[in-house]
Amino acid sequence: MATTPVPPKAPPKPTWDPRKPQQLPWLRPTIRIRLTLLYGGMFLIAGILLLSIIYLLAAQALNTGNEPLFKIVDGNAIKVTSDNCPAVNNATDLSLDTFNQAISACIDGQRQVALDNLLSRSLLALLGLAIIAFAFGYAMAGRVLSPLGRITRTARAVAGSDLSRRIELDGPDDELKELADTFDEMLERLQRAFTAQQRFVGNASHELRTPLAINRTLLEVHLSDPGAPPELQQLGKTLLATNERSEQLVEGLLLLARSDNQIIERKPVDLAEVAEHAVDQVHAEAEAKGVVFRGKRDPVVVQGNGVLLERIALNLVQNAVRYNVPEDGWVEVTTEVQHGQAVLIVSNTGPVVPAYEIDNLFEPFRRLRTERTGSDKGVGLGLSIARSVARAHGGHISAVPREGGGLVMRVALSI
After folding, report:
1. From CA 16, how far away is CA 256, in angstroms rounded?
2. How far is CA 37 from CA 128, 141, 146, in A?
3. How far is CA 152 from CA 13, 21, 183, in A?
4. Contact criterion met (CB below 8 Å) for 321 and 388
5. Which residue, 179, 209, 289, 300, shows the most beta carbons closer than 10 Å to its own?
6. pLDDT tens string 127-156
7. H or E segment at 270?
8. Distance CA 244, CA 255 (A)
9. How far apart are CA 31 and CA 107, in angstroms?
10. Is 269 exposed, middle or buried (0-12, 13-18, 19+ CB in 10 A)?
């Protein structure tokens, strides 16, 4: 008994929110800030140790706290004046011992004043040098880490589907250049792989168009024969529907291969006009299913490819109509500006969608309730194409289950 193939797992959710504003550069604990603090902290510690050693050596050299170097043992009518030692000004009224003690205290005081001056001036010099050391460390850290900045900018460009970017780092053959060269080699291999994949899908889709078109023509010719038996007419209609489904699959694959690249030529496109056109195309199908359109579409102009943007709106509106409730269903299509971005929102009534199924809906050939074959609701590429087109325009698409059933699809594009 054949086993059902296991569907591919959805990619892990990103750990960061692209809509969340980033922190200020001075508040982020970047490597440059940490290296600056490390350099400056080490200099500060070394300066404090050096200052302590100098202070201890100076104190020892000045013999602080020892006996005075001289004393007066005999003398008559000694007159001494001093602004710093007022105790010795009246030497004639003092005994020799008291006079010698006053001189000793004065010398000790002068030594302490000299040490205090040395300490205070050294601390000021250390503070100034520490500021210079921090600034110098910040500048040197930025110079050392500048290759990492180039690698980061290139990685961001690659994340935007621009695999043609390369770092091409110049300079000495050190660890950073080795990292940059390895990254360039990886990008080269990725670009070749993606190019080969897109070329294969594009060529296969083009090659399949011709036989499918021939089959459709032959089936339409046989169905136009009035003398064909009813069994043959029914078989022809079934084959024609299957052929049409295959053509949709081929067109979807070709569009998916095209939309995976960045849009080079951009023109002003009114998102409201695109949404209105998509609603007009699906209006007949919505009336047949009893689905009502509503919503306000404000004019919002974006730079992009009008055909691909129309494909996004058409896929979302078609899914909203096809996956709806049997009675009293509605689809709300709105366009507006939110937080400096052009936003297309398509919400609808419909079956309850579990939150864990949201990521799977954007995978190719995945449908709600694991429908894979025999469905009249498409070939399973609509949301995959919408996501690829949104990424190619530098935007993103998200889906949120609606309370009571249905989905709220939100496409955000840069203005």
Report:
1. 26
2. 16, 10, 18
3. 21, 18, 11
4. no
5. 300
6. 888 888 888 888 888 888 888 878 878 777
7. strand 267-270
8. 16
9. 53
10. buried
Contact 54, 122 (CB under 8 A): yes
> What's the angle, vertex CA 226, arms to CA 224 and CA 232, rounded to 5?
80
Tokens 């168009």 sit at which residue?
209
**Alpha-carbon span 368 to 383, nearest angstrom:** 12
Compute mean pLDDT per 10 residues along the chain, 415 residues long, and list them: 41 43 56 82 87 83 59 58 63 63 74 83 87 86 81 73 74 79 85 79 74 84 80 83 75 63 72 91 90 91 84 89 89 91 92 83 64 49 80 86 89 87
Tally the residues of the chain. Answer: 415
Conformation bin of residue 152: beta by default, left when phi > 0, alpha when psi is -120 to 50: alpha
In this structure, which amino acid lies at residue 169?
L
pLDDT tens-digit profile of 58-101? 877 776 555 555 555 555 556 666 666 666 665 555 566 676 67
Which has the closest alpha carbon to 32: 107, 164, 123, 140?
140
What does the pLDDT look like over 277-296, one tens digit per residue? Answer: 899 989 988 999 999 999 99
Specify whether the backbone of 114 is left (phi greater than 0), alpha (psi in -120 to 50) or beta.
Answer: alpha
**Helix, strand, coil: what percent of the chain each, to 5?**
55, 10, 30
